[in-house]
Amino acid sequence: MSAPTVVVVGTGPAGVRAAQALVEAGLRPILIDEGLRDGGQIYRRQPEGFKRDYAVLYGGEASKAHDLHQTFEALRQHVDYRSETLAWNITEGHLHTVQSSQAHSEEIAFDALIICSGATDRLMPVQGWNLAGCFSLGAAQIALKAQACSIGSRVVFLGSGPLLYLVASQYVKAGAKVVAVLDTAPLIPPLAALRGLLSRPLLLWRGLQMMVQLKLAGVALLKGVKPLRIEGLPDQGVSGIVVSDSAGRERQFSTDAVGMGWHLRAESQLADLAACEFSFEPMSRQWLPRIDPDGRSSQAGVYLAGDGARILGADGAEAAGRLAALAAMSDLQQSTGRAQYQLERDRLRQQLAQMDQFRRGLAQAFPWPYQHAEALPDEAVVCRCEAISAGELRRCVQELGSRELNHVKAFSRVGMGRCQGRYCGHAAAEVIAAVAHIPVETVGRLRGQAPVKPMLMNAREVSSGARS
Ligand SMILES: Cc1cc2nc3c(=O)[nH]c(=O)nc-3n(C[C@H](O)[C@H](O)[C@H](O)COP(=O)(O)OP(=O)(O)OC[C@H]3O[C@@H](n4cnc5c(N)ncnc54)[C@H](O)[C@@H]3O)c2cc1C
């Protein structure tokens, strides 16, 4: 019997550890990533020719970044690695990919598919966020990590969650001027959050240290803010931001760039195209693909690991990637993988459960500010790709009777643009739920559509990778 074809999408922490487990068991997986280099988000590699060392690029995570990169280098000759290759669709048992420099799409038949597609920023619109000079936190971080650039000369960060403080600290360390960090989370987190946060005391300690360092660097730190508007002119970009502080006073900060984000959203379109079932998680108010403790989705042969399934951070992604690969091999009756699965399963599950506890603590301490959707003025843009305003979404509910997100999409074009609703889908659902006075889960979620990201229209498809 020939070896099974196992395909891994993503070469971040989850994908690399999945590939490592597969190679250790004697398989030669196919690794697909749309990026130029491996590493994923947190351990993103700098472009060729840039020479910053690991400590500068990755700070306290330098040794983990180094270890993951070394692991990948050692794997290179044992895997079929396809960089700059987008996985754009999944049909029964087949992954469809396209290489950015070529005009043909490839159809790969797989026996097991491990999707490690990561996450993106989760964004809540603010009036004026469509002005030039507004970035997501992730984009602000990529500018710094990949290009050694700041997004502006006087930067304000707005949002909530650990990434808010982390990116602000990275900017300060790199010598950029950070004017303020404006956090929408309540001043005092609920007691229930503490239990979760204490499950990883070292991370909690690092977070607190970061806040102190920002204060010492002269950055204004405000918690409990409500964003009111980002100011500026269409031809000049951002000039300031106005929020209401925890005491209800209006505060204005002059700035030429705003980095914003509220935690992350799982990048789950591929899971959707694979027809995996999803369920609504009330705590984070997002739809997540259903998985068992080892990463098996509801579709046989499709496994999900890392941020694309549960946002557990980089360590969690590494553990989840390995566990999903071991589970896949066990299900494929691959004897070495199966033995290793029996050996490691319980330890990895336990590790993930602890990380999930921390995730829950974070979600409670830094909640998604869904209430802001109701307060958004009608003229505020929600979908930046298609310039769809909050008022237009409300009109679809009030005048056209729409109450479901895909229905509103058909009427308004919300989520129909280049980002395919990645950055506006969650907020649009909240705007609709608020105006229709219904729970957000009944509004549903934008259905994944192929291609998940833009590709050349003249791409022709060829087949490869016959199934055993
Ligand atoms: C913008 C951003 C910044 C972050 N910064 C930090 C940080 O500084 N510190 C920290 O501790 N955590 C950070 N995180 C969280 C951390 O990156 C993750 O927890 C961790 O990287 C998750 O690993 P992963 O392997 O699941 O996904 P990722 O590391 O995100 O890797 C996913 C990979 O999949 C590829 N991919 C996705 N979709 C496709 C597709 N359709 N076709 C082909 N390839 C695809 C991507 O190119 C990427 O390389 C950040 C997350 C984001 C989104």
Show the helix and strand layout:
Layout: E1 6-9, H1 13-24, E2 30-32, H2 54-58, H3 62-75, E3 80-82, E4 85-91, E5 94-99, E6 104-109, E7 112-115, E8 119-121, E9 134-136, H4 137-147, E10 155-160, H5 162-173, E11 178-183, H6 191-197, H7 201-216, E12 220-223, E13 226-233, E14 237-244, E15 250-254, E16 257-262, E17 264-266, H8 269-273, E18 278-281, E19 286-289, E20 302-304, H9 313-331, H10 335-365, H11 371-375, E21 381-383, E22 388-389, H12 390-398, H13 405-412, H14 425-436, H15 440-443, E23 460-464
Parallel strand pairs: 1-2, 1-7, 2-3, 6-23, 7-20, 9-16, 10-11, 10-16, 11-12
Antiparallel strand pairs: 4-5, 5-6, 8-17, 13-14, 14-15, 18-19, 21-22
Helix pairs in contact: 1-3, 1-9, 4-5, 5-7, 6-10, 9-10, 12-14
The structure holds flavin-adenine dinucleotide.
The site of flavin-adenine dinucleotide has 36 residues, from α1, β4, β8, α4 and α5.
